[in-house]
């Protein structure tokens, strides 16, 4: 569990290299008056590491302030502690974990005990969990998760005329609760977006793609692949709403109609917006599957030999600005391509041998601990990668562009605006042996995803490949052994960087 820390100055943070959830709050511009930091004018003069709030950012619903403000107001008493009584020694995270065990009625009762419990009991993620876990997608988002819950469970109550959770509490200081609000309302800093060191290509041959990118397992951004897609011209909100009508799509742990999801995405302002990410979209709405085609570079997909037994492999992705995926490696050791149809996405990728800062995978790879939100990672860890010898590969993928994500690469993606995309995972001959090795790992039952038969997937896939492409596995194994014997002791990064200047060379 990530520990709480006060929002102190950047100078102090630099002296302590801890990976905490909460970092400095210095130079946050446009902070609402209720939460304005003392000496704000002086700090704004030094805007080298400043943050900007979105122009429409509201003040914190309950007036929660960062803990550093308490130290600058010595006459104040933290109502967070007085209202919790003997429980004040618990961290905010632990308090919220305990409250997460309560149902809505008990949360409502607890909110009446003290100002502190009022703030904690109205923490939006608690109500979000109650809605998503208890209502099975049968809800209409109503401006906040608590209002949504009340409107769904007590339809006779007109939530528009009830102050659901908007009382201000004076002198309540909490880094954890404040950061949740802050991450939901921060703009992406320009320096987070300006670095773009990925190789861009247009109109290259399949052979060139295989030789220079797929075979050496290097990312590339491809232009012009979507020019003939009907989806590029048709797929907007009005068209999708009309085409999909009442069809439910996978959104996090629930299913929602597009109309209901867009209602949510238009209103929501939270740290981790829900993402529409549906692997069965083409089966649900066959027209969607017919309005795009796999780019020529990715058409060898050996998992197709399994037919309907293949793991999930393609998804339609829809989300508002700020939504996305935190650091992960694509499932089953597959490679992937992601095509942006509308909007734009920021990508940050690290090679297989470099674990991103702030990310902590378990030894067996079954679990990954990382910051709560994508914005939190950018705030607390992105800056550290600037001086890394093995720094990330980055880009902004815009509408009409496709990014190739090689197998094993860590990657983070955040939507910079309302976006629609298609992504597919695939297995080619260049990656077949990696996938087979992955599927036969001792803990395959935990690692393999996208299929119900995780344990037997390796044998099924290997047998199907041998039946469809006799001798292929043996041939690839022999080539891999020969290549390994010929290779010198040269690291991956030595092969793609110039040690004299410390820059990517990618000279093919």
Walk me through the structure.
The chain is an alpha+beta fold and 508 residues long. Helices cover 34% and strands 16% of the residues. The protein has 23 helices and 19 strands. A 7-stranded mixed sheet has the order 3-4-15-10-17-8-7, with no helix packed on it. A hairpin with a 2-residue loop joins strand 5 (248-251) and strand 6. Helix 8 runs parallel beside helix 9 (145-153). The longest helix has 15 residues, at 472-486. It is globular and about 75 Å long.
Short description:
The protein contains 23 helices and 19 strands. The protein has 508 residues and is α+β, with helices and mostly antiparallel strands.
List the helices and strands and how they pair.
Layout: H1 10-15, E1 28-29, H2 40-44, E2 51-52, H3 67-71, H4 79-84, H5 92-99, H6 104-110, H7 115-121, H8 124-134, H9 145-153, H10 175-185, H11 190-193, E3 200-202, H12 206-214, E4 220-223, H13 230-234, H14 237-244, E5 248-251, E6 254-257, H15 258-267, E7 276-278, H16 281-284, H17 286-290, E8 314-319, E9 324-328, E10 335-342, E11 344-350, E12 360-361, E13 368-369, H18 374-380, E14 393-398, E15 401-405, E16 410-415, E17 419-426, H19 432-439, H20 444-447, H21 457-468, H22 472-486, H23 492-496, E18 497-498, E19 503-504
Parallel strand pairs: 1-2, 3-4
Antiparallel strand pairs: 4-15, 5-6, 7-8, 8-17, 9-16, 10-15, 10-17, 11-14, 11-16, 12-13, 18-19
Helix pairs in contact: 8-9
